[in-house]
Specification:
Elements (H helix, E strand, L loop, with lengths): L6 E4 L10 H7 L5 E4 L2 E5 L1 E3 L4 E4 L7 E5 L7 E3 L4 E4 L2 E3 L6 E5 L3 E5 L2 E3 L2 E6 L2 E5 L2 E14 L2 E5 L2 E12 L4 E5 L2 E5 L4 E3 L4 E5 L2 E3 L6 E3 L4 E5 L2 E3 L6 E3 L22 E4 L2 E3 L6 E3 L4 E5 L2 E3 L6 E3 L4 E5 L2 E3 L6 E3 L4 E5 L2 E3 L6 E3 L4 E5 L2 E3 L6 E3 L4 E5 L2 E5 L4 E3 L4 E5 L2 E5 L2 E5 L4 E5 L2 E3 L3 E5 L5 E4 L2 E3 L6 E3 L6 E3 L2 E3 L6 E3 L6 E3 L2 E3 L6 E3 L6 E3 L2 E5 L4 E3 L6 E3 L2 E5 L9 E3 L6 E3 L2 E7 L1 E3 L6 E3 L2 E7 L8 E2 L25 H9 L5 H22 L11 E5 L5 H15 L7 E4 L1 H4 L7 H11 L4 E5 ...
Parallel strand pairs: 1-2, 2-5, 3-6, 4-7, 5-8, 6-9, 7-10, 8-11, 9-12, 10-13, 11-14, 12-15, 13-15, 14-16, 15-17, 16-18, 17-19, 17-20, 18-21, 19-22, 20-23, 21-24, 22-25, 23-26, 24-27, 25-28, 26-29, 27-30, 28-31, 29-32, 30-33, 31-34, 32-35, 33-36, 34-37, 35-38, 36-39, 37-40, 38-41, 39-42, ...
Antiparallel strand pairs: 69-71
Length: 897
């Protein structure tokens, strides 16, 4: 109260007091105070001046104001600065206002309102603190104003309608608001209103807990919604996402509606969060649990983003995207869904990174219709059906991640779905990866371990591409190629299959290159009836490893595969043919085979007899190496590689040194001490394997190696799983590299494990002894990241003495990456428009150069993405010219990773 303010007292009797509150208000001026004695007052108050109403004495709420007529509020405010404290306001019609702010500003503190709502309209402002509103219809608090409103520690309950409605252009803040026992939605925000909710509790609404419509926007922090009749949060319309009340940066958006931070949404009647229209929702660090429908659903043209959220025990799918919605999830887990963990349909787009999906009743990820799903470093476990399934015409991209313990396949691609997967690990489950799709399927650097049945299956008539995949411990076959399938398989390994390593179905015609099949229970390679295909530079070792005599290669009647440069070793029998089989063997070898029958020499065919075996008297012999390259050709090939200036200089210096060494030897002089073994350091995609292959050919051209071929190995190729397993395993790989280069990628992994059951140090000791015993026969190159390789070399004195020269493969610059794209374009008969080069340079400049950057691999992937986008663009042109088809333009360059 200001020093000049007057106190007016109201009491039923007594000298110097007003008998009615209205009389006191009429006598008061702005800033005066009206103190009311306990009692019941039937009045209709118009507060048209800035006064303060409060009880005179007695307990809180001892002053009760009752509406004088059913159609009028108890009090109506038209002046600014009105404050009402500790009173009970009771209206006569619960569907009409009990307190109405038509203009000005009203502050209600510690009041109870019933029998009618609290409403603010026009440009009025309203503040409720420590109030209770109950027993109303339609709404308890209705903010239909263009002015501000604030609700603090307000309880809304027992409402036949919505708890709080924020409409028009109101800007409302609610802190510690409690809404319970309402038949409609708990809080409804509509029009162009903005609302911020902090630590609010909404329980038991008959409809949605929070309903956001039209162009409204809501930011909710540390709120809790429970026991809803419908959705926990329902977002409609096309509102703009509000600013983050915590000041944290959010995604720029032109559509949107809701920002939820650290909120809990529990036991909802349908969806936990449902978004449609063009609504835009960000959930950050939220938990959704025990909903009767999906955890989060996005429909229409909506955009939904989840960051570090948990969706637990949804009765429907954990995450759902339909229409053309875009759903993004990062660091989010989905657990115990009664349907799918993630369901994407229609033409929706879903991106999920570093997520977890476990214990789903259906497939953890299901992509159907024309949806597009991208999974990066996600973990999927314990699903009743498939870990990941793509069907219809869906598109699936997987980068890294792990899928374990699936009731059906770890991954299944069928119908006309397309999939590109790199670095995915699939462990256990009934099957590993199953491709039954007629669409494009590419698997790169994927691991499949301990599948009950086949590791990877290529279905009937399919054409998948497999590169550098590893399959181990399959219960039946490692790789199954179905009837009439024509897959391309390169650089893969199949180990420890209980059945056959590679099974080629009837009429199939695969293209297989540089594949290693080792330790199979049955055949290394089984070729079915009338199957064909080519197998180049493959190694088939240890067939029949369970003690049963199975030939490494079995060709059924009518089978006519072509095998070039293949090696069969460590088995009882190398080849068995059924009657009518017509295989062709070109430059193939048998080693350590007890009953060899494989012919040697170029272009040799082995005629089948009526018995499974062929001529047991033939012997295996090693063929001559291909004609040598000239040093000039090899150096020119090295110089033609993009970038790598420092590496090229180092290799050229080594060539000069080796030529001098060779010249001294030819003169009968002692060569100087020289270690030819090298350490290659650098990030992925910088050309380490390519240079290692060239290095071996250069050594062969100089005359310091016999063949100069390259054998690639990693920890799994060298380290065994039990005592006595590692030494022979490392020795076999080393023997395969005799006369050439043994390239060990991620060599530091041999020393990173220190458990009692790790045999990495044994592999190093074996390798060092073999390098000493065969110092002139094999060059060893170890490769990996710079810091890890420095630690690796220092970990053993023998390593430090033999690997004293390091070549650093620096990341490619933008200009070099552009040249790689240009080279790829020329190889595939494309041309870059001049402005496309500038856009490519800008695109590469914007890419972060961290350890995950793929360098040349990234450039090649970007080129592939450009060709796909160009194909979509050209398809829209009715009269595309040859120039249109060949030219890649700036709009073909994807601008996001």
């Amino acid at each position: 109260m200001t020093p000049t303010a007057t106190v007016h007292r109201v009491a039923p009797k007594g000298r110097g007091t007003h008998r009615t509150i209205a009389s006191a208000v009429h006598a008061a001026r702005d800033g005066d105070e009206i103190r009311i004695a306990p009692g019941e007052y039937v009045e209709q108050l118009l507060l048209d001046r800035a006064v303060r109403l409060l009880p005179e004495d007695g307990p809180a709420h001892a002053v009760r104001l009752l509406a004088a007529s059913p159609g009028r509020p108890v009090l109506e405010v038209t002046a600014p600065g009105v404050r009402v404290e500790g009173l009970v306001l009771t209206g006569q019609d619960p569907a009409l206002p009990a307190a109405l702010v038509a203009a000005g500003a009203l502050e209600l503190v510690g009041c109870e309102i019933s029998g009618g709502r609290v409403e603010a309209g026009g440009d009025a402002s309203l503040t409720l603190t420590d109030c209770r509103v109950s027993g109303t219809e339609l709404a308890a608090v209705h903010l239909n104003t263009t002015g501000p409103a604030r609700l603090t520690r307000v309880v809304v309950e027992d409402v036949e309608g919505t708890g709080v409605v924020v409409g028009a252009r109101a800007v409302a803040e609610a802190a510690e608001l409690t809404v319970r026992r309402v038949t409609g939605s708990g809080v409804r925000v509509r029009g162009a209103a903005r609302a911020v909710l902090r630590e609010c509790r909404i329980s038991g609404p008959g409809r949605s807990g929070l309903l956001v419509e039209d162009e409204a926007a809501v930011a909710a922090l540390d709120c809790r919604v429970t026991e809803t009749g419908a959705e926990g949060v329902r977002v409609l319309g096309s509102s703009a996402r509000p600013e983050d009340p915590e000041g944290r940066a959010g995604r720029e958006s032109g559509h949107g509606g809701v920002l939820l931070t650290r909120c809990e949404i529990l036991r909802t009647g349908t969806d936990g969060v449902a978004v449609s229209g063009t609504g835009d929702v960000l959930l950050r660090d939220c938990r959704l649990r025990d909903g009767s429908g999906p955890g989060v659903s996005a429909d229409g043209e909506s955009r939904v983003e989840l960051v570090d959220c948990h969706v637990d025990r949804a009765h429907g799918s954990g995450l759902v995207a339909r229409g053309t919605a875009r759903l993004t999830a990062e660091g989010t887990s989905v657990t115990g869904s009664r349907a799918n963990g993630l369901l994407a349909g229609d033409r929706s787009e879903v991106r999920m990174a570093a997520g977890d999906m476990t214990d789903c009743s259906f497939s953890a990820v299901h992509a159907c219709d024309d949806s597009r799903v991208t999974l990066t470093a996600c973990r999927i476990a314990s699903t009743a059906e498939h870990g990941i399934r793509a069907t219809d015409r869906a598109g699936l991209t997987v980068e890294g991640g792990r899928v374990t313990d699936c009731g059906l396949s770890g991954v299944r691609i069928d119908s006309a779905a397309e999939a590109r997967m790199r670095g995915l690990s699939v462990v256990r489950g009934r099957a590993g990866i199953t491709t039954e799709s007629t669409g494009t399927v590419v698997l790169e650097e994927c691991d499949v371990t301990d599948a009950e049945r086949a590791g990877i299956s290529c279905g009937t008539g399919t054409t998948p591409v497999l590169r550098d995949c590893r399959i181990s411990g399959s219960g039946t076959a490692g790789l199954v190629i179905g009837e009439r399938a024509t897959p391309s398989v390169e650089g893969c390994t199949v180990r420890d299959a209980a059945g056959s390593g590679v099974v080629v179905g009837p009429g199939a015609e695969p293209r297989v290159r540089s594949v290693t099949v080792a330790r199979t229970g049955k055949n290394s390679l089984f070729v079915g009836e009338r199957a064909r295909g080519t197998f180049e530079d493959c190694v088939f070792a240890g067939a029949g490893s369970d003690g049963t005599a199975f030939p490494a290669l079995h060709v059924a009647a009518g089978g006519a595969p072509v095998l070039r440069g293949c090696l069969v070793r460590d088995t009882e029998e190398d080849v068995a043919l059924e009657k009518g089989a017509r295989p062709v063997f070109d430059d193939c070898l048998s080693r350590d085979v007890r009953n060899p029958s494989l012919p040697t020499g170029a272009d040799q065919s082995l005629a089948a007899s009526g018995s499974p075996g062929a001529d047991p008297g033939s012997t295996a012999r090693e063929t001559e190496a291909p004609p040598e390259d000239t040093i000039e050709d090899l150096l020119a090939e090295l110089d033609g590689l993009a970038g790598l200036d420092r590496v090229k200089q180092d290799v050229s210096s080594l060539v000069k040194l080796m030529r001098m060494v060779r010249r001294r030897e030819e003169m009968g002089l002692a060569p100087p001490p020289l270690s030819r073994h090298l350490v290659f350091t650098g990030n992925p995609g910088t050309g380490k394997t390519t240079v290692a292959r060239l290095y071996g050919r250069i050594l062969a051209a100089v005359g310091l190696l016999e063949r100069g071929h390259l054998v690639e190995a990693d920890r799994s190729a060298l380290v065994g799983e039990y005592v006595g397993h590692t030494g022979p395993k490392t020795s076999r790989v080393f023997q395969q590299a005799r006369g050439g280069v043994l390239f060990i990628d991620e060599a530091y992994s041999l020393t990173q494990y220190t458990g009692s059951n790790d045999f990495g140090q044994e592999a190093i000791a074996t390798l060092l002894k073999l390098m000493e015993d065969h110092r002139d026969d094999v060059v060893v190159i170890v490769a990996g990241y710079l810091k890890e390789m420095e630690v690796f070399v220092r970990s053993n004195p023998g390593l430090a003495s033999r690997f004293n020269r390091t070549l650093l493969f620096e990341d490619y610059g933008s200009a070099e990456l552009v040249s790689i794209v240009e080279h790829q374009a020329a190889q595939h008969q494309y041309e870059l428009a001049p402005d496309a080069r500038e856009s490519l340079t800008a695109r590469f400049d914007a890419m972060p150069r961290d350890r995950g950057f793929g360098n040349g691999r990234t450039a090649r992937q970007l080129f592939q993405a450009m060709t796909e986008r160009q194909a979509y663009r050209i398809a829209e042109l009715p009269d595309a010219t040859e120039s249109d088809v060949m030219t890649l333009r700036p709009e073909d360059i994807p601008q996001t990773p």
